[in-house]
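Follow-up to my post from last week.
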Amino acid sequence: MQIWRSLRAVPSWIYPLALAVLVLFLPALGIDFALIRQVQLACILALVVSGLSLSLGYAGELALGQAAMYAAGAYTAGLMSIAGYTDIVLQLVAAGLVALAVGVVTGIPGLRLGSWSLAMTSFFLVLLVPDIIAVFGETTGGRGGLIGIEPATLFGHVLDPENNEFYLVIVVVTIAWFAVMRNLVVSRHGIAFRTLKQSPVLASSVGVSVFRMKLLGYAIGALPAGLAGALFANIDMFVTPEAFGFTFATAVLAACILGGAASVYGALIGAAIIQFGPNQASDFQEYALVFYGGFLIVGGVLLSGGLAKFGKAAMARLDRAAGLAGTRTPDPAADGPRPAMDLMEGRILVVDGISKAFGGNQALNNASLSAEPGQVTALIGPNGSGKTTMLNMICGFYKPDSGRILIGDNEVQGLSPDRVARVGVARTFQTPNIPEHITVLEAVASGRYSTDRVSMVATVLRLPSYRRVRAADLAEAQRALEMVGMSHLRDETATALPLGMRRLLEVARSVVAEPRVLLLDEVASGLDENEVERLADLIRDLRDAGATVVLVEHNFRLVLELANRIVVLAQGAVIADGSPAEIEQNPRVLSEYLGVSVEETGARTIADEEAALSTEVKS
Amino acid sequence: MTILWSGLALGAVYTLVAIGYNIVFVSSNTFNFAQAQLMMVGTFVAYTGLVTLKLPVLVVAVMATVTVMILAGLEEVIAVRPVKDHQNQLVTTLGVATLISGATQLIWGSEPLTVPFFGSNEPITLLGGRTYPVEIALLVLAIVLVVLLGQFSKRTVTGLALLGISEDREAAMLRGVNVRALALAAFAASGALAGFLGLFVGPKTFAVATLGSALAIKGFVALAIGGFGSLPGALVGGLTVGLVESYAALELGSEYSNIAVFVVLIVILMVRPAGLFGRVRERVV
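User reply:
Got it. Predicted complex:
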């Protein structure tokens, strides 16, 4: 275990880099030509697969268009070479840009309809490749192939294939791309991608535009495919449409599933296995489709997560054995006193005469409420009275049929959920909604995606602006965790926590964005007594710090304890609105809640009734 | 008029594929990538039965129906049921599609095989255009199926149960609908239909191993134009695709036919993402 501990002490990116340097010097070790060629082809395949990983594993969209982008890159580079532009850097840049353009242009319509549309339009794109090449037959050589590509040059120096100079170019480009991919994935953007894959609803509630993010995943994935195409065109100096057909598209998908779509280096593993395994066998071509097809079925059914998943699981086990992982048991005493809260700039929330019908069901009927900064406004009502519909309207998930919603001076009805989130509305969900495979700290930090913005370029290059925001993300997330008393769990896998902890995590995630309006949807359900106590303290602190808190809750005693003002909904309409004392005595509220008239209950209140019920349950 | 008939008949084939997508989609919310490949197997079985074995038409029809029905049932059990999320189902059904394409290539070779139509293979003249009996049969079949299935889903308990599943799977389960059995039945039914239709589709398209991917794409475009889940939409969408493809090939050249269909798809997705007959679902938290 000592060895493992010292191995883990080294930054994890050292290992792939060391391997890459080894591959770089393979020719110097006297490896024969056939193997060198296989390594080249594996690198090229890995680039294409990596692009698919970004789309499938991170943005959560199955796309088959990488083969078409690869073709676009190859033909761009080939045609440039024929026209006399043999410089490989120039070709790579141009091929990357052309592929990116293909990705954006075909991604926009494919993503408009959602679900399978991108898979199908991108599949269509692959089928179109031979047709498009045939249409431009005079320049592309049509089905016969593109001939006349000159050897590539680098700054005027001809890259000698005998000397393996072009091999170096391929390996360096591959290393560079995987560094880019790794930096992108291990960042707030990567977490945003995972959030999106987990749940588009969750992603938009932290201010991520679902469409834009999916398009980014698909379009950025085009980049390595374009680079791979340019490299491929220069290996054999000959390009035919056959290289980019359906068989190639399925090989890419098979490699991606095999390696594990949601991992950075899985693409390399998958591509290497496909290239050194089946692709090398000369009589394999005949059986290629059967093999890939069977593989996709088995892979899809059994191997979700790919080989990378087994690797990660093994590492986690070794970590635990070596005592590197944190304790798994929640231990509230481990947390110090809660830190003081910064002042929060809450805004007044005004819901003005909102109506919403789903078919014939009038979920909300001319409902109005307002919530002041520095106050807790509770929204209560029986099941189906429209509480959650109200929250969803405020967040922008539903468009109201009529009425207005204001956050401060901003009208937000009709805005998309991600834009409402960016105006400053944060929320928790009835069923905690947390992305898989990320730590508690990362999950909380993901709430800040729209608070500070960093471009992907800055992220990839790890520019100071990225580092600054990253530091702020972690510091704020740490503070938020301390507030909910969970800082000792910061390195745990977020989805592995028990229900109560996940609820508190959601509260931390919504607080970390310093929201103007905070919507808490049944946060206390499923919490034990200590946790409810901690939650109540936290809500009081938030209120005192000036936040606008809207609390949807069934625990009536908690509501009475915390709320400055209570709004009661029944059958989609507001039936009462006032201080806790007023609401507790309101006859309509009593009859809605208890189903009895005031005469029957006498002077009893809802709290009495609940107390009576809980003694009954206990006895 | 000749080109109109041939375009409409091609469109009818796409409609039939789209109907298959719809049957599965409505009953289990799965998009079966392999639907067109199943139909392709139907055309090959029809070829083997009619040409190689020279069996009577009725026997071949039963053979094709049963073979493809079993294939589709196997697909549901092996590649769809064990997979929970829809993204992965897309991968596994694509796997089935690829596997079937590869297997048919191994069994029947990659040359197109001519499947004779059991009616008559003599051209006829209708409304001033030359056409073949099989083309008219395809059109009639597509229209009849759209009407019949529409009535089935509205009038029978099973049909309503299927609509219920597509609306809310859990609610349907709680109402006592056997969701698993119906999902298997839907796959089997769409397979049986695809196999039977192979006898009609084969004479129009030839039996060829690349048929699957071409039909899959055009069937999808038909769905996208008409709207997911809509049967009349599948008819309108399918016929539109068939006509666009035929006229583009005639006017611009054969290499433009796919490109023209792609352009139509892009325009539809940009202008009316839910299709002509589709409805936009409100997002639910």
